[in-house]
Amino acid sequence: MSTPTQADVEQLQQQLNQYSYHYYVLDDPCVPDAEYDRLFRQLQVWEQQHPEWVRPDSPTQRVGEKPLGQFAQVAHSVPMLSLDNAFAAEDFTAFCKRMADRLDFAGDFAFCCEPKLDGLAVSIRYQHGLLVQAATRGDGSTGEDITSNIRTIRAIPLRLQGSDWPEVLEVRGEVFMPLAGFERMNDAARLKGDKVFANPRNAAAGSLRQLDPKVTAARPLMFYAYGLGEVQDSAGQLDAESHHQRLQQLKGWGFPVCPEIERVQGAAAVLAYYQQVAERRASLPYEIDGVVVKVDSLAQQRALGFVARAPRWAIAFKFPAQEQLTALLDVEFQV
Ligand code: NAD
């Protein structure tokens, strides 16, 4: 539909909000992600044509959903944002151009390329090296207190290694369920005649939002760190100048970091990374739905800042739905 009415736009906003509620709050999506993404992009196009119809509760202006209230709520002092999406090489090239224009920068950006893990974003707070609180992303400003459940995940340190950490450190990353564990869990459920999970993301989200941490403890969950939230660092321990260096520092404090992460120079190298990961996607031990590309320099990140729901310095470069992937891999990218 090329010329929408205001009613069309409002209807699509409401429809997507309904889908979001099922996905984030009930952990029970009613449409495939690719369909949600298609409608979301349609809404973005319409809202660009008619900025006067953008409402503050439009899904393009917000992150996730408000928590249901079974768990205590946690306010995020540094918001947990979403990511803008690229679906084709042209979208990625446009992202690079927007950043170059904004910074008046003519060189090649260094990027940190990371698999886009299909799980659940969490924020884990350490005070004086000890894990004190963990929360889901929720609507980005308020999440759910899932401290007891996070403490059951063995990959997550309860106490940081070494002693050179900031006094307050919020580590952000993805909790996900590796495929082997997911298959094992569903096989066991089938044998008992129990309900099986639709996919590993769903299983991770359902496992983490359990009121009884013993249930979470029995689920095969894993965590990879990919960023930071609030930091109080009076001794200047956090001295990394790039995102990649920061991940190495997190590793040193005891956090697992995805081994597929690579620092690359320039847009062409990002596209090569994307293609290389897309080819290996089916053999990775966890599900991913794209790659996340972040400007590596923290100074450039700070200069670029944020828009409503996403940083300007990062993008989720999504893989097409599985059936379109084979065709895509036959095409040579041009930058
Ligand atoms: P997103 O999943 O597109 O991107 C942001 C998220 O990426 C972060 O919150 C984090 O959890 C994750 N992530 C994984 N690896 C990361 C890394 N290395 N670095 C940084 N972040 C990383 O954004 P979103 O706002 O959570 O959700 C939008 C997506 O969720 C849509 O694209 C859609 O596919 C899906 N969705 C589906 C439905 C549905 O009904 N099927 C409804 C709502 C949302």
Automatic annotation (TrEMBL):
The residues annotated as the active site are 116 (n6-amp-lysine intermediate)
- The residues that hold NAD(+) are 33-37, 82-83, 114, 137, 174, 294, 318
Instruction: Explain the purpose of this protein.
Output: DNA ligase that catalyzes the formation of phosphodiester linkages between 5'-phosphoryl and 3'-hydroxyl groups in double-stranded DNA using NAD as a coenzyme and as the energy source for the reaction. It is essential for DNA replication and repair of damaged DNA.
* Family membership: Belongs to the NAD-dependent DNA ligase family. LigA subfamily.
Q: What is this protein called?
A: DNA ligase
The species this protein was found in: Alkalimonas delamerensis
Q: What is the gene name?
A: ligA
Q: Which residues of the full protein are shown?
A: 1 to 335 of 677
